[in-house]
Each structure stands twice: as C-alpha cells, then as structure tokens.
C-alpha cells in the first residue's frame, strides 16, 4: 500500500500513536472505527507499521564499510555507560565524523541503516542507542517507545552529548563533527548545536523541534534544517526558529519538502517519500562534505 491510498485521518492517528503512549492494539482498534472514503482504515493503519526488512539500503556486509557495536563511558547519563553502532568507511582514515540520532524508540534498524549510508559516503558514523542503559532497543518500536518514555530526558540527552564527544575524539575521527537526527533525534541535534557551540561543526536535524529562541545565540555550527510540509506539531516551532537564527546572524539553510509528512525520510513505512527523501539526503551529504572537510 502506497501513500496515495492512505486516508489523512489514518496518518494523523499514526502520528499520535508514534508520539504518545498509545499501544499498537489501541492504534489498530481506533483505526478500525474510522470511516474513510475508500478502502479499509484498518488495512491502511497496518500498512503504516514499519517493515524494516524491506527498507535496508546498505547491507552490514557491504565491503565499503565495517560496522561494529561499541561501548563507552557516559558520565551523568542514565547509567554512566553507553552503547552505539559505529560504522567505519573502508580505508585508513582519519574520517570526518557524523552522529546519527534515533527517533523516540531507540536504535532501530532504519537508524542503523542511515549510519551505514553515511559511512558509505566517507564519514565515520555513530548511532547511539539511548535505550542501552535499560537493555537496549528491544527489537520492536512499540516496546522501544515505552522504554524511551521511562528515561529521564536530561540524562538521555547527556548520553547523546557524550556520544557526540566520544565520536569527535575517536582515534579514527578527523575531529570534525556533524550530527543528524530524526524526530526526537532532530530535536537533539538542535540542542547539541546550542550546548556544544564550536565543538559541533555542522548540524542537520530532520523534523526536529526547535530550541528556545533565547538559546539560538549559542549556536555556532552551520545548520541545515529539514522539514516536512504537513507536520503541524513540529512546524509550529519553525518560523520562530528561523526568526531567531536570522536575528543572530547564524549560518543556516531551511528546507520544507512539498507533499511530505513527518517521517518522510524513513523508508520502512508509506510515510516515506522517495523523491523528496533522496533530495534531502543528497543535500545532507553535500552539506557535511562541505562543512566537515
């Protein structure tokens, strides 16, 4: 089932499901009660659930990369330790580095694939698992969403900040650090830009909530901000962010992708917009290559 066949009511319900404590059972039950113009709302809802096996772009056995799971210290975080998915490009290095921050459900296969995509482009990529202090991504997004909600948000952010610092100082890193993230991870990238100052060299948040306007003055990294056209929850912060960036003479570009919804880069569900996701990713890679060289 493609995006064209899914009623907007079902998309809105799915967005609520993704960003609240709604269970999968409740999501499907509520979908079954919807009246839509064409087809079954329940079938549409089931089609929106992620299918990670069908969404892999870069295999973990690809000869251009070498992935591995790594553990590192994270003082002040959820447990003092963190685990992440580190993907090294072929070659000796050092390499410019890119942190890849997951959504609100832990390090799922889609985010691991994004890290591999970055490594294929020549970046040392680290995708931290914010759930690792409480057992790690559980193998499904429903439980992952519930687990992430139990974490202290400040400690979880500290774990992401420590992940960025670990990557920047890694022996294979050139010392130039970029960060990208999606949904929750997009908001993290915005916050990293505020907190890290000149230690972050480029940031590309995808549909991430903006930092407070009074914090924007602290941003020193050039930013590329990626937004979906139909994403009212996140886009409510977009214009204020733009105004604050302009008022503080920050280096940034802002793109809104027509015909897209929140999550349009995630190719595991019909929210994926192939054409616009490719444009956004090509811009991201070009931006990192320019700013992290």
Quaternary state reads single chain
Overall average residue pLDDT:
92
- Sheet having the most strands: 8 strands, mixed
Helix content: 25-40%
CATH class of the largest domain: Alpha Beta
Strand content: 15-25%
Question: In the CATH classification, which architecture of the largest domain applies?
Answer: 3-Layer(aba) Sandwich
Spatial extent as radius of gyration = 18 Å
Uncertain residue ranges: none
Spatial sequence of strands, sheet with the most strands: 1-2-4-3-5-6-7-8
Could you give the count of β-strands?
Answer: 8
Q: Count the helices. How many?
A: 10
What is the CATH homologous superfamily assignment of the largest domain? Answer: Alpha/Beta hydrolase fold, catalytic domain
Shape: globular
Number of domains: 2
From N to C, what is the helix and strand string?
HHHEEEHEHHEHEEHHEH
Structural class: alpha/beta
Q: Distance between termini? A: 41 Å
**Do you know the CATH topology of the largest domain?**
Rossmann fold
Question: What would you say this structure looks like, in words?
Answer:
With 293 residues, the chain is α/β, with parallel strands linked by helices. It has two domains: 3-48; 55-291, Alpha/Beta hydrolase fold, catalytic domain (Rossmann fold). The chain is 38% helix and 22% strand. It is built from ten helices and eight strands. It has an eight-stranded mixed sheet with strand order 1-2-4-3-5-6-7-8, sandwiched between helices. Strand 5, helix 7 (184-196) and strand 6 (202-206) form a beta-alpha-beta unit. Helix 2 (24-32) runs antiparallel to helix 3 (41-48). The longest helix is centred in the C-terminal third of the chain and has 18 residues, at 274-291. The model has no long low-confidence stretch (mean pLDDT 92).
């Amino acid at each position: 089932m493609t995006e064209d066949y899914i009623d907007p009511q079902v998309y809105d319900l799915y967005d609520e499901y993704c960003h609240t404590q709604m269970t999968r059972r409740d999501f499907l039950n509520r979908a079954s009660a919807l009246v839509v113009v064409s087809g079954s709302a329940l079938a549409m809802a089931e089609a929106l659930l992620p299918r990670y096996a069908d969404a892999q772009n870069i295999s973990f056995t690809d000869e251009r990369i070498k992935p591995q799971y790594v553990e590192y210290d994270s003082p002040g975080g959820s447990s003092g330790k963190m685990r992440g998915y580190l993907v090294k490009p072929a070659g000796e290095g050092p390499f410019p580095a890119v942190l890849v921050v997951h959504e609100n459900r832990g390090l799922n296969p889609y985010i691991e694939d994004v890290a591999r995509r970055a490594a294929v482009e020549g970046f040392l990529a680290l995708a931290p698992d914010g759930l690792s202090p409480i057992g790690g991504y559980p193998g499904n997004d429903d439980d992952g969403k519930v687990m992430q909600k139990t974490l202290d948000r400040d400690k979880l952010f500290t774990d992401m900040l420590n992940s960025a610092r670990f990557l920047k100082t890694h022996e294979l890193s050139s010392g130039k650090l970029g960060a990208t993230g999606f949904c929750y991870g997009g908001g993290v990238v915005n916050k990293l830009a505020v907190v890290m100052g000149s230690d972050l060299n480029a940031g590309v948040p995808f549909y991430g909530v903006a930092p407070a306007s009074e914090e924007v003055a602290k941003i020193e990294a050039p930013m590329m901000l990626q937004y979906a056209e139909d994403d009212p929850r996140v886009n409510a912060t977009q214009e204020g962010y733009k105004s604050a960036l302009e008022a503080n003479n920050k280096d940034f570009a802002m793109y809104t992708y027509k015909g897209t919804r929140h999550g349009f880069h995630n190719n595991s569900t019909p929210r994926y917009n192939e054409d616009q996701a490719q444009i956004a990713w090509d811009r991201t890679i070009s931006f990192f290559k320019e700013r992290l060289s």
